[in-house]
Cyclic nucleotide-binding domain-containing protein
Amino acid sequence: MTGGTAPRGGFLARLPEDGAAALLALGEDVALTAGTRLFEEGRPADRFWVLHQGTVTLSTRVPGRPEAVVETVGAGELVGWSWLVPPHLWRLAATAATAVRAAEFPAAEVRDLCTREPELGRVLTLRVAEVVGRRLEATRARLLDLYAPPPGAAHPGRLP
């Protein structure tokens, strides 16, 4: 089903009414099975999703180790922000952790809409910036968990 089906809560809250309707008209409902890879780190970011149901894990490559899950997102949340920021390459990877229902949006068409509807573009950019900030903090916290020395251990570079 195409257009207008995404809930207005969560990520889509606080968008200008006219712009939100135009944005929702670009969305397409999709169903993904658990284990589906939505995108790979470093590949072109040409779409994004707002989740209706289910969860998606966001992960990053760690040299010499398995991929590190940095966050799990659920209903009402945005999956993918790299589509908005040049060079439009994914900064993380995403995998459906459970069965997912979501609205999928074509990035180029949404960017064009934001150019035509500057207030929508401004508010959408601010909403994406909020997501980027939260994801940065989540990534930082997760990497500190993975790589911090155990309590009481000497800090690298510091003499005991």
In short: The beta strands are 28-32, 37-39, 47-53, 56-62, 65-73, 78-79, 93-96, 100-106.
